Amino acid sequence: MPEINRPRYNATVVLPGFELVGQIEPIGPWIDFLNSKDKHVLPMYAARVLPIGGAATTPERPQVYVSRADVLLLHLPDRAAHSTVYMLKNMQSAIAHAGPLVIRGEIHLGVDASLATFLDDLPGNFFPVTNAELFSTQALPVPLPRKADLIFLNRTQLQLYYPV
């Protein structure tokens, strides 16, 4: 049986105690892949696992399995990775807090949704934020860019959010 080659994209994943830098190989569109109800693990390839607040360096691992439930933020720096992300047209500027991260950006809502209700209406846990400005209250081992075209946040890890 021939091996299927899917594209892999550079990614940074922030967890409560770790930052991972590596590649992710999505199966299908990003939102569907991240919000798959029967998948609890997010595989990363050529990954470095870096403890937040620690000075330890870790060797690259060929493959690491990340608990999707613990993901605070997923950053995809390559524009090519954004091609399968469908964005709703109704946008609201907001600031969100997740762990040590503070994110200001555009949240894409359904036509009838409001910032107060959109989390309750999401079909999955991950949602995209565009034109994001990223800040961290703790020094990260690999600093996030100050601005990002696209990130994904995990609604179960949001501590609070509010309109700007």
Task: Explain this structure.
The mean pLDDT is 93. The protein has a 10-stranded antiparallel beta sheet, with no helix packed on it. With 164 residues, the chain is mostly beta strands. It folds into 2 domains: 9-78, SH3 type barrels; 80-163, Roll (SH3 type barrels). The protein contains 2 helices and 10 strands, in the order E-E-H-E-E-E-E-E-H-E-E-E. The chain is 5% helix and 46% strand. The longest helix is centred in the first third of the chain and has 5 residues, at 30-34.
Q: How many domains in all?
A: 2
Order of helices and strands: EEHEEEEEHEEE
The low-pLDDT segments are none
Number of strands: 10
Question: What are the main properties of this structure?
Answer:
single chain, 164 residues, mainly beta, SH3 type barrels, 2 domains, 10-stranded antiparallel beta sheet, 10 strands
Write a brief caption for the model.
With 164 residues, the protein is mainly β. The protein is built from 2 helices and 10 strands, in the order ββαβββββαβββ.
Write the layout of secondary structure elements.
Layout: E1 9-14, E2 18-24, H1 30-34, E3 41-51, E4 61-67, E5 73-75, E6 90-98, E7 101-109, H2 118-121, E8 126-136, E9 147-154, E10 160-163
Antiparallel strand pairs: 1-2, 1-5, 2-3, 3-4, 5-9, 6-7, 6-10, 7-8, 8-9
